[in-house]
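I'd like us to work through together how a protein chain folds, taking it slowly. We need material for that, and I hope you will provide a protein of your own picking. Go ahead whenever you are ready, and we will take it from there:
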Amino acid sequence: MASISANTKHRMTAPAPKKAAKAPAMGMGKKTAGKKAGAKRGAVPPLKPAVFGSAGAIAELKGLDRDAQKNRIIDLCRNAMGETSLVDKSKPHTASTSRDRGAASADIAIAAKELGINFVLKECDVMNEMQRMLFPEGIQSSFQEDSETGGGLKPSASAVSLTSLGETTATSATTMGTDSKRGKPTPANAREGCLLIIRAFCERLDRQAEPYMVGAFLAAALDECGSSSSSVREAAEDAAKALVSLANPWAFPRLICPLLLNSLKSNEWRVKSNALDRLTQCTTTSPVQVCKLLPMLIPSICSQVFDTKAQVTKAASSALLAICKTNPNPDIEPAIPALVNAMCKPADTNKAIEKLMGTTFVVSVDAASLSILCPVLSRALREKLAIHKRNACVVISNMSKLVSSPEDVAPFGPLLVPELKKVASSVQFEEIRDEALRALGTLTKALGELAASIDEKAEAEAARMAREAEKVKREQDQIEAERLAVAKREEEIRLREEEEKKKFKEAMDAQRELAKIEAEAAQKAKQEDMIQKDKEKRSTKGKGGKCQGCGLKKCKKTCLFYSD
C-alpha cells in the first residue's frame, strides 16, 4: 500500500476553459418556449402548389377539354376546403391539414392564372362557394348594424343543426368543427380554405385578382380574425394583409377605410387589433389618402386607445402614430410623437404643448394638421393651472394665422371656441385673459363667415343644453316628490307598525302578568294543601274529629293518645 507524506505530489488536469457565449444578433432574442398571446406574426412564405408546381403539369391541364378542366378545378376547390368524401367509414383516412389546403389553394391560383381568372371563379363556381362559406346569410348581412352588439361586422345569427342534415351514404370531412360560439354554421376548415384561396390569388395573380378579391372578401377576412379556431385566425390575418397590399391606393377612402372603421365596433378584440394593424399597413400602401382622412380616422382610433385589452391599446397607439406621420407638414413633424403620446396619455398634454411652444409655423395649416393639433389643444385649455391654458392660447393664436381655408378649421371651431371663451371669462389673471381673447380673435378671423354659424351653433347648443337642464330639473323634482311621497308612506307604515308592536307588547305583558298571578295562586294553594296534610299527619284526630287510635271523639284512659 502506497504511503502519503508531505512530499507526495498530485498531478491534476486543469478543466478546459468555457467558451464565451456569443451575443445574440441585433433584433434576435432568445427563443421562448411558447408563443405569447397576441404576439405579432412575422412574414409568411408564399403558398406552394402540390399539383401544378411543374411546367408539365400545367401543360397537361391546358390540354384537357373545358369540362375536364372544370371538374379538375372543382376537385381542387373541395380539397382546399377540406371536403374529402369518405364513402367507406370503416377504413382509416388521412385528415386534411392546413398545409394540404394551402397547397390546393395555390394550385387553384395557378390554374386561374393559366386558364383565366373569370373561368375559374365564375364558370367553375369557386367564388359562389367561397361566398357561401364565408357569408352564410349573404354578404349584405355582414354590414348591417346590430343594436345588441353595438355595431361592427355582424356574425351569422345561428348555427345549422347537424341532425337536420339527415343520413347520407357519403360522409364529408367538413361536417364537424363549426364555429358555433360565433354563430358560424360553416365548417372551420372550409372557411380557412377560402381564406387561403384569397391569399393565393393575391400572391399569384397580383393586380388581376384585385377586382374579384378586395371588395368581395376583405370584410370576411376581418371578421374571421375573431374566430375561435387559431388556424382560421392566422389565415384571416394573412388574407387581410394580402388584400390590403393588393388594393389600389384610391380604394382606401371609399372601400377599405369604411370596412376598417366598422370593424373597430366589433366586440371581438382580435378583430379590432387586426383592423388597427391594417390601418397601420395602409400608411405605407396609400399614405396620401390616409392623410386626407385624418380628421375622420383620429377620433375613431383615439376611442380604442383606452380599450380594456392591452393588445388593442398597443395596436391603437401604433396606428395613431403611423397615420399622424403621413402628414407632410414639416412644422409639426418633430412634435408628432409628443402629440400622439398626449392623445394616449392625457397626463402628458403639457409636454406636448411645451413642444409646440417652440414651433414656428411657416407652412399653411390644413385639416390634417388641425386634426392632430386640436384634440390636444382642447384638452390643454381645460387644464387646472392657468399657465398651461396660456400656452395653449399662444399655440392656437400662432396656428390660426396660417390656416389655409375656413372649411379646414370649421370642424374644429366648436372644439376650441367654447373653451377659449371660458378661459377669457373665468381666469383671474388679466394677461392670460388677454391672450385667450387674442387667440379667439385670430381663430374667428380664420373661420371667417363660418364663425357666425359657429356662434349660432354654440347659442343653439347652449339653448338646447338649457332646455335639457330644465327638463332634467323637472324630472329631478318629480323624482324628489315621488321619493318624499314614498318616504311619507314608509313613515306612516313604520308608525303604524310601532303602534301595533306597542299594543302587542302590552297585551303580552298583561298575559304574562295574569299567568304569573295564576301561578302564584296555584303555588299558594299547593303550599296550604301541603301544610294541611302535614297537620293531619301530626294530629291524633282524623278528619271527623275521631281519635285515630280508639276511634272515639273522646279517648278512653286505655287509649295511647289519651290526654287530660
